[in-house]
Amino acid sequence: MPIKINYLKKINSKPSSNLVLFSDEKFKINNFKKYLSESEFSYINDLLKTSDLKKNIFVFEVNSKKKIVLISIKKDLKSFDIENLGAEFYGRINYGKNSEYYLNSDSIAGKQENFVGHFLHGLKLKSYEFKKYKTKKDSRIISINVFGVRNKTSIQNQLKFKALEEGTFYARDLVSEPGNILHPDEYARRLISLRKDGLKVNVYDKRKLKKLGMNALLGVGMGSIRGSYLVTMEWNGAKNNSKPLAFVGKGVTFDTGGYSLKPAKFMEDMTYDMAGSAAVVGLMKNLALKKAKINAVGVVGLVENMVSGVAQRPGDIVKSYSGKTIEVLNTDAEGRLVLADALTFTEKKFKPKFIVDLATLTGAIIVCLGSEYAGLFSNDDNLSKKILEAGEKVEEKLWRMPLHKNYDKLMNSKNADVQNINYVGGAGSTTAAQFLQRFILNKTPWAHLDIAGMAFSKYGGALNSGGATGFGVRLLNQLVEENYE
């Protein structure tokens, strides 16, 4: 349900409409007498005496037209705890007709920095729904009117949260689109439209890619009637010519597996095989909207992996942009082929400070980590540490996995420089990352995030209601904000 936030300069402390108050973890409400009528205070106080106070939120219907929502603030809350509290609040009020709530920021005790901002950020992230193709439109809306002088969000922080929400929602929208709508041609067109946000966007089509020698990427899209593209998005927000931060995303808009065909069951979910690219796009949009004081580049490879009379075959050998040859033993290990060319191109053209790539790369990472952590592989301990810390702060968690030269023998090909899959068995995610590492030619600090288990949620999570999660946008924004802005 859409959320409308209003910051009010002045209001009666006892609004007649729904009221939101914040208490301590023991739900002590003696200080709230100035916000409640005598009958409201007595009614709530009596109910609390017989209630389970382990809950975070109580909703009291004091009459047919007014609810009083009591939210406990536990000690030592981190920012993501506050965001989760906002999301839980949304879950309690997301019903009925148009709803209007008055949030009393003066009732917030403690010293949590920007409490209201994080609370409403979590609420808005949780409220996201993709209903573009529903013919029956839901006109309901929730209005949150914030009043009081304490913990009021500054204008600057409002803009930061808004940019991050728009970037996250844009990523979720892209992942949610069906494959017949968001094919590579349409995806490239949408990215061109981001120029209006201040991004410099360049599109390399099939003709340009062939001229550059990006045969690994082009091979994946051979079976599709759609085009194949590499798109770069540049944001130059620093006053100097410092090296950019680089983010690379896999954008397979639909993945049949090619001739190494996937099982029919759940193949419809393969629209989200471009979630790595969506995270990069959402991040770049966010950086542009908030006018981040850094230089950054986003690079995405956009292809459709289809079966046809001209599709790539198992056993084909292609020459990558790096000059290295790849034996394609399995056409369903296609994301690494797209990234191989994109990574080398990014390193060579932009000479970045670091490269972080994101991809729904392997089912093996889901076997290993489920839907709680993304896999992190890196050639640089310092970059890894920063990414892991950023993930903890926004609760987009990662677990570092090993890279080692001994895995290389599993990816060495008898007929080419490297093969695209390990047929010996085991270490599926690690050998995929080991493959990618071969295309970082100049020892640029690099991290690979395998987000296969995190990009899409059937059942919803703390800050999403199911479907596309936008995983990676908030994580990388935190990385940038904390270390490079």
Provide the CATH architecture of the largest domain: 3-Layer(aba) Sandwich
Radius of gyration: 25 Å
What's the CATH H-level superfamily name of the largest domain? Zn peptidases
Question: What is the approximate shape?
Answer: elongated
Global structural class: alpha/beta
Average residue-wise pLDDT: 94
Beta strand %: 15-25%
**Lateral arrangement of strands in the main beta sheet:** 7-8-10-9-13-17-14-15
The unreliable regions are: none
Q: Tell me the CATH topology of the largest domain.
A: Aminopeptidase
Largest sheet: 8 strands, mixed
How many helices? The count is 13
Overall number of structural domains: 2
The CATH class name of the largest domain reads Alpha Beta
Helix content: 25-40%
The end-to-end distance, rounded to whole angstroms, is: 34 Å
Overall strand count: 19
Secondary-structure map:
Blueprint: E1 3-7, E2 18-24, H1 38-49, E3 57-63, E4 66-73, H2 79-93, E5 99-104, H3 115-127, E6 142-147, H4 155-176, H5 184-192, E7 200-204, H6 206-212, H7 215-220, E8 229-236, E9 245-255, H8 275-289, E10 295-305, E11 316-319, E12 325-328, H9 335-350, E13 354-359, H10 364-369, E14 374-378, H11 381-394, E15 398-400, E16 418-419, H12 428-437, E17 446-450, E18 456-457, E19 467-468, H13 473-483
Parallel strand pairs: 1-6, 2-4, 2-5, 5-6, 9-10, 9-13, 12-16, 13-17, 14-15
Antiparallel strand pairs: 3-4, 7-8, 8-10, 11-12, 14-17, 18-19
Helix pairs in contact: 2-3, 3-4, 4-8, 8-13, 9-12, 11-13
